[in-house]
Design a protein that fits this description.
Elements (H helix, E strand, L loop, with lengths): L10 E6 L1 H4 L8 H16 L3 E6 L2 H8 L8 H25 L5 E6 L7 H16 L3 E6 L13 H11 L4 E6 L17 E2 L22 H13 L3 E6 L5 H6 L6 E3 L8 H6 L7 E5 L1 H8 L12 E6 L6 E5 L5 E6 L4 H7 L14 E3 L1
Parallel strand pairs: 1-2, 1-5, 2-4, 3-4, 5-7, 6-8, 9-11
Antiparallel strand pairs: 7-8, 9-10, 11-12, 12-13
The protein binds glutamic acid (GLU).
Length: 361
C-alpha cells in the first residue's frame, strides 16, 4: 500500500456511495471495503481524524432479504435498510478490527440538524468520539426517516456533518472518476472548480446513480456550497486503488472544489439549513442592497421587512426573500413572527437577524 507522509488534511469526512461498495445484487464488495478500511486505518495512524458516512444499507438488505410479497416503496426501504444496516456495520467492524480501530455507529435524521441545541449535542458526540480515536460511521436512519424527514441523499447528510464538524476536507467517493466535462464531450474530467465559477451545472449530466439515491447534480450543489464555507471538496472514484491516500498525499485526481474564505460557528449551521427553515419574511430593496453589500457586516433590521410570510418563533431559522420572491439568505430570528409583525417597517428596533446569524446565499 502507498505510504503517506504529511497528510494535507487534519480532519475529513469521507462519504462512500452504494455503488462503490456493493455489487450488482447489492452484496457488499469485500475487496473494495477491505481497501477503503485499510486506507482509513492508515490515515488515522497518521493523525487524520476521519468521519465515515457510508451508504449501502438498503443495498446490503437487498442481498439478505427476499421480500415474500411486494411492499409499498417506503415499507420496502424500511425493511431493507434496517436489516442491511446490521450487515453493513458488522462488516465494517470486522474489517476495522484487523487494524485495531474501534468504530461507532451513528444513525441520523434530517430533523437532528434543524434545532440548534440538538445540533450542538450531536456535535459534542462526534467530537468526543474523535477525541477517543474512535471512528464514527454514519448513515441515515432510513428505518424511521420518511418523506419530509428524509435527506435528499447521503451526500446531503455528509455535507451537513462536514460543515458541523469544521473539517478541512470532504471527500465524496463515487463510482465515477469525477465530473465529466460535458462541454468537451471527450470523457475528460474537470480537475478543479473554483467557488467563483457560476453555472458549472451546464457541464454536468443530471443522471442518478443506479442503486443509491444521489446524483451528480446534488453532489455538485453540496460540494459548491461547502467550498464556499471554506472546505475543500473532492469527488473521486472510490474503486481506484489507494484513492484516499493519493488525495491526502496531495495528488490531483478526480474533481476538486477549491475553498473560499472560511465561515465558522453559527453561520455555518445556518448556511447548511436550507429546507429546514421554519418561517419566511420578505424584505424591501433597501434591505437587499444592505445585506448583499459583502464587505460590510449588516444585520437584517425590522425597518426593511415588508411582510411576514409564515409563522416562526424566536431562535428559528427563517428564509429571507426579496419582493420578487428570490431567496437571498437564511438567518436565525431574534424574535417571533408575531413580534416581527408588530415592529416591521419601524426604525430604531433591534435586528430581526443579527449579522453573526445570517447567511446570504
Ligand atoms: N441511506 C441509504 C443506504 O444506506 C443510501 C442513501 C443514498 O444513496 O445516498 O442505503
Amino acid at each position: 500500500m502507498k505510504q503517506l507522509h504529511n497528510p494535507r488534511y487534519k480532519k475529513i469526512v469521507v462519504k462512500v456511495g452504494t455503488n462503490v461498495i456493493t455489487g450488482k445484487n447489492g452484496a457488499l464488495d469485500m475487496a473494495v471495503l477491505g481497501s477503503l478500511t485499510a486506507q482509513i486505518a492508515v490515515l488515522q495512524q497518521q493523525g487524520v481524524q476521519v468521519i465515515l458516512v457510508s451508504s449501502g444499507a438498503v443495498g446490503a438488505g437487498r442481498s439478505i432479504v427476499k421480500l415474500s410479497e411486494p411492499l409499498p416503496p417506503v415499507a420496502a426501504r424500511q425493511v431493507l435498510s434496517s436489516t442491511g444496516q446490521i450487515k453493513l456495520i458488522s462488516t465494517y467492524n470486522t474489517l476495522f478490527e484487523e487494524h485495531q480501530q474501534i468504530i461507532a455507529q451513528i444513525l441520523v435524521t434530517k430533523s437532528d440538524f434543524s434545532d440548534r441545541l440538538h445540533y450542538l449535542n450531536m456535535k459534542t458526540c462526534f467530537t468526543s468520539l474523535l477525541q477517543q480515536n474512535i471512528l464514527p460511521i454514519v448513515n441515515e436512519n432510513d428505518a424511521v426517516s420518511v418523506t419530509e424527514l428524509m435527506f435528499t441523499d447521503n451526500d446531503e447528510l455528509s455535507g451537513l456533518i462536514a460543515s458541523m464538524m469544521d473539517v478541512d476536507g470532504y471527500i465524496i467517493l463515487s463510482h465515477v472518476d469525477g465530473l465529466f466535462d460535458m462541454k468537451a464531450g471527450d470523457g475528460s474530467i474537470i480537475p478543479v472548480i473554483d467557488p467563483s465559477m457560476k453555472h458549472f451545472h451546464q457541464y454536468i449530466s443530471p443522471g442518478k446513480s443506479e442503486f443509491g439515491r444521489g446524483g451528480m447534480l446534488t453532489k455538485c450543489h453540496i460540494a459548491h456550497k461547502l467550498s464556499r464555507l471554506g472546505i475543500t471538496v473532492h469527488i473521486a472514484n472510490g474503486r481506484t486503488p489507494d484513492i484516499l491516500l493519493s488525495l491526502l498525499g496531495g495528488e490531483q485526481t478526480g474533481t476538486t472544489f477549491l475553498p473560499q474564505k472560511p465561515t465558522h460557528g453559527p453561520k455555518r449551521w445556518i448556511a447548511t439549513s436550507e429546507g429546514m427553515e421554519k418561517g419566511a419574511v420578505t424584505v424591501n430593496q433597501g434591505a437587499v442592497t444592505a445585506l448583499m453589500a459583502g464587505e460590510r457586516a449588516n444585520s437584517l433590521l425590522p425597518v426593511g421587512v415588508v411582510s411576514v410570510d409564515s409563522s416562526f418563533m424566536k431562535g428559528d431559522i427563517i428564509k429571507i426573500c426579496s419582493i420578487d420572491g428570490t431567496v437571498i439568505g437564511y438567518g436565525m430570528a431574534q424574535c417571533s413572527s408575531e413580534k416581527t409583525l408588530s415592529i416591521m417597517g419601524q426604525n430604531n428596533q433591534k435586528p430581526l437577524v443579527h449579522y453573526d446569524y445570517l447567511f446570504i446565499t
